[in-house]
Amino acid sequence: MSVGANGAPGDVTRAAPAAPGDEADPWQRRLVRLMRGAGPIFVVLIVLLVLIALKNPRFIQPAVFLASYLKPAAPLAILAAGQLFVIVSGEYDLSVGSLITVTVTSAALLIHGDPALTYPILALLFGIGIGVGLINGTVTTRLHVPSFIATLGMLLILSGGIFYATGGAPRGSLPENFRAFGRAGIEGVPFLGQLPYAVIVLLVVGTVFWLLLHRTNFGQQVFAVGGNARAADLAGIDVAAIRTACFVLSAVSAMIAGVLLGGFAGVSAQVGETYEFQAISAVVLGGATLGGGRGSVPTAIAGALTLQALFTLLNLFGFPAPLRSVVQGVIIVAAVAYASYRLRRSR
Amino acid sequence: MTAPRMALPGGPPGAWARALRTGLGSANAAPVYLVLLVIFVVSWVIVGLAGGSFLTVENVTSVLVRSVALGIVSAGQTLVILAGSLDLSVAYVISVAAVVSSVIMNGDPGRIVIAVVVVLGIGVAVGLTNGLLVTKLRVNPFIATLGVALVLRGLLNAAFDNFAGKVAPQFETLGYGGIGPLPWSVILLVVTVLAVWWLLRSTPFGHHLYAVGGGEETARLSGVRSHRVIIGAHILCSLAAVLTGLFLVSRIRSGAPWIGPDGGYDLESIAAVVVGGTALTGGRGGVWGTLAGVLILAVLDNLFNQLQFNSFLKDVVRGVIIIAAVAIYAQRQRRMSR
Question: Does the distance separating the beta carbons of B143 and A284 come in below 8 Å?
């Protein structure tokens, strides 16, 4: 196998036959192995963050870092974690962007600025999210419509529905106690200053999704289904149920992202646009393969954070806004090209 | 292995009966035309009951012209999907073709040829890039063409923020002129579809396309140069998108960067191909099905317009129809394979 990456080409110790799993592993080698296992996305992320900090030293102050980087990144990171389940199970979910818009516009329409309605409507929204996920899953697994088309149809239905209900210009408004999720936080935390609720939500969702995918039977089954659906089926896994559950998780993550975005981005009919592609880009940057079977929650979230760091950096360097998408395009293609090169070499 | 059965009919090519069977009456295209017929008749009846006119030369022509833009790009999309790939960059290729040709022409009829040559060249370059990314760098086509789309979008929006340039007056003939009642644009659509059909049916490239889409590894081991086939399909798809861009700019008279993405040509062309019975996994389907898929969407559009249906609800119904059509084919496919 490829030992070469462990040290410099002239490294003498490299030639020494080290048994795999050697107890006396030097920590450097263990670190290298950890990095190789986790994927290069963390390296890219750290490099980008260092570049940002060099350009703007205030960036590493905890309060600034939380408020101006992690808080705005939270919706995409949550969305990516949800999308990851669908991707690992071998499908796509293109409906999440329009679902974000549904969350924001219908919350504004239904709550209409009345703080007392916030929690009942939140419950209703989650019901809608679960419903959309169930429909996506059912259409894909029971009616055998490819998920690309099923969720594309759902995108058309949801975005058409939003525009029909709002006439193109969203009405109503969100009360403060709804917007608090996206814009406020716990004040007076020592060292950090304000700890934004969005970051707490990201940590909670990230942890729950990580446990689900990497520490439960369900997660194992998601990988099995995405790796080889036929084999999983023969092994007694209910492939349709697993995939449907993944669509529900993705839809719920979109609702959560929508609630956060409604908080700091405000109400508009464009709030969720292009989020489906950004989420898929983030997941793929995090090393998941489209087609299923590979991926991890921490690296998917790191992928989302990397995209956000990239936007921050380009902003700092005064890059013209339109050219940002050029850089984004080049980076996701390069990341996938590199990942598939690594995959081929490791075989 | 249904693909080779369709793609490699044993007899000599050119037998019209068989051609028709492989094209129109094949296992995949037949239900599409049934759906089209049902939607057409239902629309006819509904519009008739509402006191409108559906089956007039004028209205049918309007349905056809409406189908031209989506039809041409979807014919190209059919090729890449048959090859087991897909192209999300077509919407921006359409915009690039529209803007660049309009800027080059700038109202001067003498520059029509050079403008068309330049945008066709851009089409080849984009298709080649897509194809090379998918084959040589093995980037998943979804990501590869999404990345290229993002790059094109960025370049377009950096260079233009509104209508730019102006097409030559003679060039508008493509969008508005015709022979008798038959518009040039419809002729362009029919010629494109016939060309793609001929390519798929009667050339080694077409047969290899089905083989590669059915299973790239198998095709490669059988001696098909699979990379060349996929790259070729991507180039032709981008060229089709360029033709759509040229048609659109001939109608709007000036190019703007949002023409392609606002028309939703990327996802809609994929939807039209799949509604037309072509498998998203590749290797099965054909361009006649795609044409039917495009016509289904256009007939629905016409119906909604005649009924002065809320334009936003159109999208909802479209979404339902796309899902329902593909669900029906999926059930049929499963029944047949049992």
Answer: yes
**Alpha carbon of A284 to those of A39, A279, A288, A293, B29: distances in Å?**
11, 9, 5, 12, 35
Q: Looking at chain A, how many residues does it have?
A: 347
Query: Inter-chain contact B153–A330, Cβ cutoff 8 Å?
Result: no
Asked if B326 has any chain A CB less than 8 Å from its own CB, the reply is yes
Most confident by average pLDDT, A38-42, A292-296, B17-21, B60-64:
A292-296
Task: Report the C-alpha gap between A322 and B258 in whole angstroms.
Answer: 13
Contact check, Cβ <8 Å, A164/B320: no
A327 chain-B contacts, CB cut-off 8 A? 154
CB contact under 8 A, B323 and A148: no
> What number is the average pLDDT over the span B259-270?
89
Report residues of chain A scoring pLDDT below 50.
1-22
Q: How many CA atoms lie within 13 A of A129 on its CB side?
A: 30
User: B101 CA to chain A: closest CA distance, Å?
Assistant: 21
| Share of chain B residues as helix, strand and coil, in percent rounded to the nearest 5 | 75, 0, 20
Q: Are B285 and B78 in contact (CB under 8 A)?
A: yes
Interface test with B, best of A156, A273, A307 (most B CBs within 10 A): A156
pLDDT at A237: 95
Task: Point out the residue among A92, A156, A324 whose CB comes nearest to the CB of B316.
Answer: A156
Task: Tell me the CA end-to-end span of chain A in Å, nearest whole number.
Answer: 8
pLDDT tens digits, A10-60: 333 333 444 444 455 676 776 666 555 556 788 889 999 999 999 989 888
CB B7 within 8 A of CB B204: no
The region of weakest confidence among B4-8, B106-110, B316-320 is: B4-8
Q: Which of residues 86-115 of A touch B (CB under 8 A)?
A: 92, 94
Interatomic CA distance for residues A153 and B318, integer angstroms: 8
Q: What is the pLDDT of residue B24?
A: 45
Q: What per-residue confidence (pLDDT) applies to A137?
A: 96
CA gap B330, B323 in Å, rounded: 10
Task: For residue A33, give how far its alpha carbon lies from the nearest alpha carbon of chain B (Å).
Answer: 25
CB contact under 8 A, A325 and B133: no
pLDDT at A318: 84
Angle at A127 between CA A124 and CA A130, to 5 degrees: 155
Taking the Cβ of residue A155 and every Cβ of chain B, the question of whether any pair is shorter than 8 Å is answered with: yes
ipTM score of complex = 0.81
